[in-house]
Structure formats: structure tokens, C-alpha cells
Amino acid sequence: MKNNNYPKVIYGYAILLDNKIENWAVRTINRRYIWEFKGCWKKGRLQDYKMQKVCWVCNNEEECAKVFEELAPKWFRNWKHADDFILQKAY
């Protein structure tokens, strides 16, 4: 079911290892911890993961579309993807 209630907050998450994207997400759910994400983790380096988070407030459907199509990909460009990244890329 589509949520047409505005304003809404959209969060962008970059899960980083060695300052490279290992995982990423753009959601309306506010996550606080890395372990709230599903993904492939390097077991011997779990303590080395870092999470960067940004949020955008959208007042209508057009602003939400802009977050997903322009703003989030631009923000993710602050980092390169991990060399062994196999999932859909953030940009």
C-alpha cells in the first residue's frame, strides 16, 4: 500500500569498510545500527564497518522522486564501491 502522507523523511545509508561502500540503502525507516541491515559481511572485520547516514524531508511525491533519482546517488558518490562489491551499485 502506498504511503501518501507528507512530509516524510527518507534516509540514505552507506555501510563502509575501508572507506568504501560495502552495502547501501535508501529507505523511510530510520536505522541506528549496522546490524539492522541484511548483507554479506566480512566476518573477521565486523568491528571495522562504519555507517554514514543522511536524511531528506520530502513534502510531496516529486521531492521523494528527486531523492531517489538525484540526491541519493549524488551523496553516495562520496565513496567508491568496494573492489569485491557484487550487489546493485548505489550510483
List the defining traits of the structure above.
4 strands, 91 residues, alpha+beta, single chain, four-stranded mixed β-sheet, 32% strand, 1 helix
Provide an overview of this structure:
- There is one protein chain.
- This protein has a domain at 1-56.
- The mean pLDDT is 94.
- The longest helix is centred in the C-terminal third of the chain and has 16 residues, at 61-76.
- A four-stranded mixed β-sheet has the order 3-1-2-4.
- The protein has one helix at residues 61-76, and strands spanning 8-17, 20-27, 50-58, 80-81.
- The chain is built from one helix and four strands.
- It is of the alpha+beta class.
Summarize the structure.
18% of the residues lie in helices and 32% in strands. The chain is an alpha+beta fold and 91 residues long.
Question: Segments where pLDDT lies below 50 for 5+ residues?
Answer: none
- Strands side by side in the biggest sheet: 3-1-2-4
How helical, in percent, are the residues?
A: 10-25%
How confident overall, as mean pLDDT? Answer: 94
Spatial gap, N to C terminus: 27 Å
Number of helices: 1
The main β sheet shows up as: 4 strands, mixed
Q: Compute the CA-based radius of gyration.
A: 14 Å
Secondary-structure element order, N to C: EEEHE
Outline the secondary-structure elements.
Elements (H helix, E strand, L loop, with lengths): L7 E10 L2 E8 L22 E9 L2 H16 L3 E2 L10
Parallel strand pairs: 2-4
Antiparallel strand pairs: 1-2, 1-3
